[in-house]
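User:
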Amino acid sequence: MKISLFLTVLILLATAVYYQSDQKDVVKIREEVSGLRGALLAEGFDPDAAARGEGVVAVVRLKDKEAAAAAGAERAKHETEVKVFAQELILFAIEMNESQKNRIAPDPEQQKRIMKIMSRFLELSESDLRLVISEVKGSTALVEKAKREMLGMSIMMLGQSNPAAGLQLFSESREFLGEGGGMAKQTAGMCLATWAEKDPSAAMAWMDKKENADLITDDTRRMALAGLARSNPALALQRLQSHPGDKENADSATASMIGSAAKPEDRVSLLAAAKAALDDPSLAKDSKEKQRALQIQQSILAGIGQSLGNGSFEESVAWMDHSGLSPDDRYEVTKRVAGSLWGKDPAPWLGWIGKEVTEPQKLKELTAQIVPSWTQSDFNSVGEWINSQEEGALRTEVTRSLASTLQEKEPEAAARWALTLPDSEERITLLQNIKEKWKTKDEAAAAAFAEENGL
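Assistant: Predicted structure:
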C-alpha cells in the first residue's frame, strides 16, 4: 500500500496548497490537482475513495476490479466450452453406439475424431472433468451403460495426470459405476497402476487403508503391482512374497508385471530383484518362503519368454544376447518362447535354437514344443524348411517331431518322413508306432510298409 499512501498524500498536499494560495494561483493549482487525479487513475486507484469515507488504506484498485471481472468472464467462457465438449462427447458416443449395433468399424474420419477427443480429454482439469461427468449423468439421450462407460473413461483420463484425484472421483462414483463391473475394475486399476509407478509409497498406503478395502479387487491389485514393478520392482516382489492380499495373486501379478515391462532394462531389473529375493540369507533353505521366492522367479522367467515370443524376433534375440542370463535361466526363457509361437512363423527361432542349444535332450524338448503346432497350421512349410536345412541334430529333431505329429491322421506321410531319419532305436520305435496307426486306416498298406522295412 506504499504507493497508494504516497499518491493520496500528494492529493492532500495539493488541496492544502489550494487553500493557502493566492486566488490568482487557483487555476494553476486546479490543473495540478487534475493532473494528480489522472496519475492516480492511470495507476488503477480511485482518488475519491477517501471522500467516501473508505480511508487511505481502503483505496480500491480499479485495475483489480477489472481483472477480477475479466477472470470471471474467462471462467464462464471456459465452463461453456467444457459443456459444449461434453455435449459433443455425448453425441459422438451415441453415433459410436449405433455403429457398434450395426457392426460397422470406425472409418478414418471417426478415428480422427476419436484421437481428437482423447487429446481434448487429456487437457481437462479435475474441475473440468467433474463438469463433463455432471453433463453426462444428466443427459437424457444416453442409456445408463453408456453413461457408466463415459464416466469410467473420464476418471481414467484424470488418473493419467492425477491418479489420487482419479481414485477419489472413482470412490465417489462407485455406486454409479456398478459393483465389480469391468469398467469399475479397469478404472480403479489404471489409476492405481499410474499412481504406483509415480509415487509407490503413497499408492500402496492408499491401497492398504481399511476404508479403501471394498474398492480393491484382485484385478485392481494386480494392475497396481504391475505399475509398482515399473518403478520399484524390489518392493513389488516383496509384497508378492509377504503381503497377505498380494501373495494370493502371485501368478497373475507376475504375468502383469512382465507385460508392463515394456523396456528391455525393465525385464532385467525385475529379474534381478527376483534373484535378490531368492538369495535373501534370512530365508531358510526348505522354507515355504524360499519355495515361494523360487516360484516367483520361475514365473518371471516364464513371463519374459512369453513376452519375447510375442515380440519382434530381432529385438527379442538382441535382448537375450545382452541380458546376462545364466545358462539355466536362458534355457527356461527359451522354453517359454518355444511354447508361445503358435500362429507365428517359428523358422527364425528354430534357426537360433539350433545354434544356441547343443544338448540333445534340450533340443528335443524345444522342437517338441514348436513343431506340432506348426505342423497343424502348415505342414507343407515344415517340410520345405526341413529340406532347406543341412544334415544335423536340428534337422533330425524337427523331422522326428513332424513324423510323430503326422502319424495320427497322415500315417503314410509320417512314414515317408520317418524313413529319412538316421538309423537308431528311436527311428525303429517311431516306424513301429506309425505302422500301428496306419493299420487302423489301411491294414493292407500298413502290412506292406512293415514287410518292406522289416518291421
